[in-house]
Write a structure and sequence with these properties.
The chain is an alpha+beta fold and 290 residues long. The protein has two domains: 43 residues; 240 residues, Exo-inulinase, domain 1 (Jelly Rolls). 16% of the residues lie in helices and 27% in strands. The protein contains four helices and 15 strands. Strands 2, 4, 5, 7, 11, 12, 13 and 15 form an eight-stranded antiparallel beta sheet that branches. It is globular and about 45 Å long. It starts with a helix and ends with a strand.
Length: 290
């Protein structure tokens, strides 16, 4: 059905050029038509291969009195591994209290032995809670509903092309806080899409509380015990948000749209971003709502 729809749309697009007649002219209308047709073809061809790996058995985890699974309490990194990897990347450590990313200063480029740190179990409906502390000028993020996916060449796609991101940032000292639209790259925002309001992040070096609630497509971000945003997956509004973002169909990241338009329907991983800056996470717990 999808391919049929695309074919019909492509034919209609071509028919608008030169009155629908086949021609060999070099007019601007035909140039634009060809470019749009090529983009549509690229968008249709860009289908990521989802990699299904073994899931960590949650029965091995402790549960607290409120029914939350304890994903990290300082005792071990059991159940954690790097995105697209089989072990915890060397850039991450358990310092006995926190999960600490040892900053490389390389930004998104990531140092050798680095990578995003992922809990190896897919979650669908849940409440995720944790605390974070960012370094001066630091940047990180909390990914959720993510997939491990490969492109047409078998190369792992960046995790952020498959999922949503709860931004972790030193708003006062990192340039990303000044980019985007209406503050949608500041702390607790749905990165590059929805700003966190009110913006109540504490300064670098201080602990912030983060909470993410996902239930049947409804997603809510909390920061320091305040609700700061809400959005709804799989809706016309969600499509509009994607269409107006860097994840748009036929855009710079052609695999992202196909994964994110259906994001969360089959659950996904959550992960902590290696953005090259020191960051600490602690008291990580999750409650299932299936």
């Amino acid at each position: 059905m999808k391919k049929t729809f695309l074919f019909a749309a492509t034919v209609a697009l071509m028919a608008s050029c030169c009155g629908g007649k086949k021609c060999n002219c070099d007019c601007e209308a035909c140039k634009n038509c060809e470019q749009k047709t090529e983009k549509a073809a690229v968008a249709e061809a860009a289908v990521a291969q989802i990699v299904e790996n073994e899931q960590y058995d949650l029965s091995q985890l402790k549960q607290d009195e409120e029914g939350y699974y304890i994903l990290f309490d300082g005792s071990s990194l059991d159940g954690w591994r790097g995105y697209g990897q089989t072990a915890v990347p060397a850039s991450w450590e358990n310092d006995g209290e926190c999960i600490h990313l040892k900053g490389s200063g390389t930004g998104e480029a990531q140092a050798e032995g680095g990578g995003d740190l992922m809990f190896a179990h897919k979650f669908t409906n849940f409440t995720l809670e944790l605390e974070y502390k960012i370094s001066k000028g630091g940047n990180s993020g909390i990914f959720y509903l993510a997939q491990e996916a490969k492109d047409a060449n078998g190369e792992m796609l960046p995790i952020w092309q498959s999922c949503s991101e709860y931004q972790v940032l030193d708003n006062a000292n990192h340039i990303d806080a000044q980019l985007g639209v209406d503050g949608n790259r500041q702390a607790a925002s749905l990165y590059d899409m929805v700003p966190a309001v009110p913006q109540n992040a504490k300064p670098f070096g201080e602990w912030n509380k983060a909470k993410i609630v996902v239930f049947k497509g409804t997603v809510i971000h909390y920061q320091n015990d305040e609700k700061v945003l809400e959005y709804h997956l799989w809706t016309p509004k969600w499509k509009e948000m994607l269409d107006n973002s860097k994840f748009c169909q036929g855009g710079e990241f052609p695999y992202a749209y196909g994964m994110m338009i259906e994001e969360g329907k089959d659950g996904g991983y959550f992960a902590l971003q290696d953005h090259g800056d020191d960051v600490w996470y602690r008291n990580v717990r999750i409650k299932l709502m299936d």
